[in-house]
Amino acid sequence: MMKSSTVGYLEAEGMEKTYKITQSQLKEKIDLITCQKGFDLKLPTFGPYVFDYTRNGRYILLGGKKGHIASFDWKSGKLSTEFHLKESVRDVKWLHNEKLFVVAQKKYVYMYDNTGLEVHCLKRHIDIYSMEFLPYHYLLTTIGGAGYLKYQDISTGVIVAEYPTKLGPAKVMAQNPYNSIIHIGHSNGVVTLWSPNLSTPLVKMLVHRGPVYSLAIDREGRYMASSGADRQVKIWDIRSWKEVHSYFSPTPAATLHISDTGMLAVGWSSHVSLWKDALQKKQNSPYMTHLSPGSFVKRVKFCPYEDILGFGHAKGFSNLIIPGSGEPSYDAYEVNPYETKKQRREKEIIGLLEKLQPEMITLDPNYIGNVDTVSLEVREKEALESKQPEEKWVPKPKTRGKNSSLRRYLRTISNTLDSVNFIFFNMPVLRKARSLKGFSQDKEPGSHSSTSSALSSSGLSPSKYSYQTDILSINDEASQTLNVRVKAVRQRALSTSSVLSKNSIKNLLFGKETGVSKNKILTIPSTINLLTDTFAPLLPSIINTASPKFTSLLPTLSESSVYKNYFSKTSKKDANSSAIPEHISFKPHSANTNSHSFGHTLTSMSNMFHPLQKSLSSFDIKHIGSKDIYVNNIIDDVWPLLCMRIFPLFNGEGLLMPVESLNNLVKFHVKKRYAEKKMRLLIEELKRFIEAGIKCFDVNLLSLSDEKMILRLVELWTFFFSTILPYIEAIFLPLQTEFDDLEWTICTYGNDIRENEIDLNIRRITLIRFRDNIIIPLYERLKVIFLKIPLNLDLEQTLTDTASKLLQSILILASVHSLDEKQKKIDNLTK
């Protein structure tokens, strides 16, 4: 029955069906040698297992999710190596031969030899889910949680290319054997095609209405099979980029593979289905089936040049005998299943000498070597026409220091000089106005009638100095401090100056009388202190007058010391500096803060703006990574700062700081919560923050019509899924990569969260917040709309198309499996 020179298949007689033939029945009819090729390895402890065959199909590499690694010659049963990594394994891949293989572990990708010795740690490949190896280019390609596609040459160790997909984390990747193009499946149903020569995808295809679960390309590069969360297996012609036909599966297919003879293997749940001639024409029934009771299928793959299908599952690994799946003839100069040790060494040297360059990877490999038939005259003419005339160079006039660092600094402090000048001129008049009848310190910040009348009575112009009117509301302590500092400034002024102008203040601060050089003004703290110590007590009045509504958002007196603890770092030369308390608790503040208490608050907060301290405006996230911050406990809690940096993302403003800097904040905050044993509080803080960000969308969808509501909902989902979700996952990536192995953290990547376990899946948390705050309030209306779509009842075509896009987002939200009433509602919408 098994042919050696041509392909042979199972042939049924009469009413028999080939898919009803089991492996046990098949082994009774075949020879003993072929029967021995089908075997089961029962490994229930460390599964589920992923695996890979060498190019000649002789060796198998097994990798259990819980760290078990083994490689062996499956035809002779000779074990090469076996060891345990004691950490999770996501993928395994052979390199150019059976002497080297790579393992995608919990954080990095590691390279091992056939004895189990670690050869390299590829630290540029972080949080990897899937790997592929291009044998003719000696390139290792990886994709993972960060969404970066990376090409690394294993012969030289150089990173050839590194491109962001900008579509979030990706777990599905396959290579086209025909042209070495990489296919990546994304969670929004899109498949992108990549080459190391271009930083953007060569092709983008929308293949499913939900996340893509698996991809497979045939050997000739004509057809691509894909499976997704919509429970469909689709066949695509990648020459015309059109769908050929599709199949349905009871549950989403988790893995696909196409043999050298065009046979399609589909793994779903605990079943494996094989379809003969399923690429060109749609088949009514499968060719063969297999059931692995109580063990879901993780990966299926055909063995090269053998009628064998290997599949890894939760309980181990199995080899199935599939007649007709293997290519009977092979080129021994290309791959040789029976090669000797000497032949293997010679082939390795020849492969390195004939290695193709990454620049030769194109969609059409036949393009290389073509002859350009255009004549030389035509090419010269086209080049002349495309050449743009050169612009005549015009020298720029020299600015002669008009934009020097000193002059830029002087421009920034010009407003400060004007404010100090105003005080110097009008201090006696202000004292007189303060004593006039009608002035009350207890008035609200928005009330300035008595102050304006007092100024008018004193001879001041309220319109000219309208921004200074609340100076009169400074409390007694601030007034006394201001009087002392003004006297100090006057004592240092020129004795001949009766009235200090703006130029005289500059001369006082920077002139020859003080012995201070303008070039060194930024390095002398005492001169800057003179300005800031004088101006700091005026902050309450200026902010009160500038924006009365802003007063309710500023912290109270108890919180000002906390912010000072965040952002101030007292100079080591200051002997009178007080020690920063190690712990200061927050207290909620009321929005109705009167003018008197607000003056006290800002007067105490003005100490933050000392030039020898880190102010709120000059503080930068890069200071978080410094050692002094951790050692001296300068920062007690970075969560408010982290929220302040991330929240503009929900308003569409984007991130103003690098993601790596925000990762440092997250690491610092998680270490603090872990030391306090408050990891659950950390997760609750994250949930509340994401929920507050989603609520800032500020849309009232219930009041809109069905058409406008669907359109607006699709816009919100597109903005959330493509802009917010990838950044949130990248920012809080340290929760999954650094801290998911803590003693009380068990479930990080899964969807089923058991009791007393902490869920650190950032993607799941974010999707649940969007579901609960946006989709669930619209459940009844969406249910009616989705019921009308199949029947085309009272719905316009544009609304039907938009609702189909919305259904794609519902399928993604249904994949979180929160096991509550809201999950049941989402499941009802997908039916």
From TrEMBL:
Stretches assigned to the BING4 C-terminal domain: 286-365
Residue ranges annotated as compositionally biased, kind Basic and acidic residues, are 382-394
Provide this UniProt record's keywords sorted from A to Z: Nucleus, Repeat, rRNA processing, WD repeat
The WD repeats are found at 205-246
State where the protein is found. Nucleus, Nucleolus
For biological process, the GO terms are:
maturation of SSU-rRNA from tricistronic rRNA transcript (SSU-rRNA, 5.8S rRNA, LSU-rRNA)
Q: What is its main location?
A: nucleus
Bias kind Low complexity: ranges: 447-462
Q: What is a single Pfam family found in this protein's UniProt entry?
A: BING4CT
- Region annotation Disordered: residue ranges? 382-405, 439-462
Q: Which Gene3D superfamilies does its entry note?
A: YVTN repeat-like/Quinoprotein amine dehydrogenase
Provide a GO CC annotation, any one. Answer: small-subunit processome
Function per UniProt = Involved in nucleolar processing of pre-18S ribosomal RNA.
Name of this chain's protein: U three protein 7
- Species of origin reads Pneumocystis jirovecii
Source species taxonomy? Eukaryota, Fungi, Dikarya, Ascomycota, Taphrinomycotina
